[in-house]
Design brief:
- 74% of the residues lie in helices and 1% in strands.
- By secondary structure, the chain is mainly alpha-helical.
- The protein has one domain.
- A two-stranded antiparallel sheet has the order 1-2.
- The radius of gyration is 20 Å and the shape is globular.
Length: 338
Amino acid sequence: MIVLQHSWLVILWIFFIGYLVLDGFDLGAGFWHLLTRGEEERRMILNAIGPFWDGNEVWLITGGASLFAAFPPVYATIFSGFYLALIVLLAGFMFRAIAIELRGKEPSPRIRGYWDIAFAVGSIVITLLLGVAWGNILRGLPLDQVGNNTGSFFDLLNPYSLLIGVFGIALLATHGALWIALKTSGDLPAKARRWAGSAWIGTLLLALSAILVTPAAAPHLLTNYMVHPLLWLLPALTALALLLIKVYSAQQRDLAAFLASVCAIGGFIISSVTALYPRMVPADNPQFSLTLSNASSSFLTLKVMLIIVIIGLPFIVGYTVFTHRLFAARVTADQFHY
């Protein structure tokens, strides 16, 4: 049972890290969309994410389904406790998707401008809310003995969680700018590298701020690192990846910079999950926390679902790899698909 529980914890975070890495670049691209005033460059940004953005969201859907199957109390607590925020999140997904698909079909520059705003705002709202949700989980929720969140929507908007949310915007804005630099042509890659440099500074400052306030806001996150000092290698490697983003981007090594960003995003998530372990949703009262052992499904459920994942995951990975290989070339100004 313990092996299955830990296997599902790893699988769950593979899906969510995969989502943040893959959908993160088009969410980040949305952040910069309005800063590009020319129609040609805006279309290039959309064409750079066009073949990928909807497929990337498969990782989030699969991760949510995996959470429901493997750890139903965690799923119930998060989705009920963050209900209003999730409604806003879904609205952000809808407006963003509609904007991507419809703005290129609209002949009126004025209407296209409205869709551009919807795309950018939707991307920022999604990123902020995901970051705020993660910040609340790291900080801990006011759970009762049956796992219900007794706090209100406004309790979720606490300073620590908002800090994590803004940090998430800066991190994915860097990631998105690096993707634009990697996938576009003409003058846009140079402009995107400058964007990435600015966002990188924000990411670094916000990461340092989060580290400084964590001992006061969420002291339980330091326990595992104090007990097992070797675990400090995880945030150290994450810091190295963050540093390499700046180095490679300055050298115009766009692929290396983007891969360093992938490692940084994965490192931040793995470091924070390690800090939470074995908790999955910490509570203000530690006795009510949802942990790996008290929130998992039955042995049979975990076993059957593991077989399904072993069969299905290669198809998701294969589709993702195939799509990126098929559309590996940089987009040009004369490719106006969106």
